[in-house]
TrEMBL record:
InterPro entries: DHPS-like_MBL-fold (IPR041712), Metallo-B-lactamas (IPR001279), Metallo-beta-lactamase_dom (IPR052926), RibonucZ/Hydroxyglut_hydro (IPR036866). It comes from Methanobacterium alkalithermotolerans. GO terms for molecular function: transferase activity. This is MBL fold metallo-hydrolase. It comes from the Archaea. Residues 25-98 form the Metallo-beta-lactamase domain.
Length: 279
């Protein structure tokens, strides 16, 4: 299996690829080619071309949740690929609120979704969409992840409420004796994602966890010490699970990554734009 990072917030110095605030992975599993998320714009497609990946050969596309930095390239994908279905959960309108007087809309382009509705397949329950490729709609809520989603809201019944991320899904790639967890932002908590995977596949070890963890480090000085402890505890808890390797980036944030690295050491790596992972 080969997993290629088509888009991340960062790239290595000297890379000819384009980076932006967004996430996109190409997955080659046996005879299947899967696209997981599409970044914030058309640049994921540019990077795919530079990396020798033909988007027209994609068999299955997935959008992890309804934020622009994961599905902003959807219009470009529909231009590049004329056949593949796109799997996602039912979406709505989503907002980031830093200033209560000016909420920022961060959802996908509704017009693009409506114009291509026949190619959208909505996931409402756990489903094996191709052999060994599972999309998980129901995430176990063992750990509280609300403090990692401060400022994120959705529209519900005409009112703006805290986003519970019922629009988020998880992908699990199953092989003989192992699984690989692929997540977009893990808004429902990376620990809950791992717990869910272990519950569904109790006899299999986790070969890799790949994706963003949404551990944006707070700017308020008074919160920094407490948040550092919070991140360290997450790393210590991850270390308790049977996980061989972890590749993260995007919304994990550099500061949180460095704290996790102290705990997880060589098991943790950064998935820069252009990173290719062989499993």
């Amino acid at each position: 299996m080969i997993i290629s990072t088509l888009m991340d917030d960062k790239k290595k110095e000297g890379s000819p690829l384009i980076n932006e605030h967004g996430l996109s992975f190409h997955i080659h599993k046996e005879e299947y080619n899967i696209l997981f998320d599409m970044g914030a714009s058309e640049y994921f497609a540019y990077n795919a071309q530079k990396m020798g990946i033909d988007l027209n050969n994609i068999d299955l596309a997935v959008i992890s949740h309804g934020h622009y930095d994961h599905g902003g390239g959807l219009k470009t994908f529909f231009k590049e690929n004329k056949n593949s279905e796109v799997y996602l959960k039912p979406l709505g309108k989503y907002y980031r609120i830093n200033d209560p007087l000016s909420p920022q809309e961060i959802n996908l382009d509704i017009d693009v979704l409506e114009k291509n509705s026949l190619r959208l397949k909505y996931i409402r329950e756990n489903r094996e969409v191709l052999p060994g490729i599972h999309l998980i709609s129901s995430i176990i809520q063992k750990y509280d992840s609300r403090q990692d989603n401060n400022g994120l809201y959705k529209m519900k019944n005409g009112k703006m409420v805290r986003d519970d991320f019922d629009h988020e899904l998880l992908m699990i790639l199953e092989e003989k004796d192992k699984i690989i967890i692929i997540s977009g932002c893990s808004h429902q908590g990376i620990l809950n994602m791992i717990e869910t995977a272990c519950s569904l596949f109790p006899q299999k070890h986790i070969k890799a966890i790949i994706g963003g963890f949404h551990l944006i480090y707070p700017t308020e000085f008074s919160q920094k010490n407490d948040y550092s402890t919070h991140i360290k505890k997450i790393g210590e808890k991850i270390a308790e699970y049977p996980v061989e390797m972890i590749y993260t980036g995007h919304c994990t944030s550099e500061k949180s990554y460095n704290i996790l690295k102290e705990v997880l050491k060589d098991r943790l790596n950064y998935a820069y734009t252009g990173t290719v992972i062989y499993l």
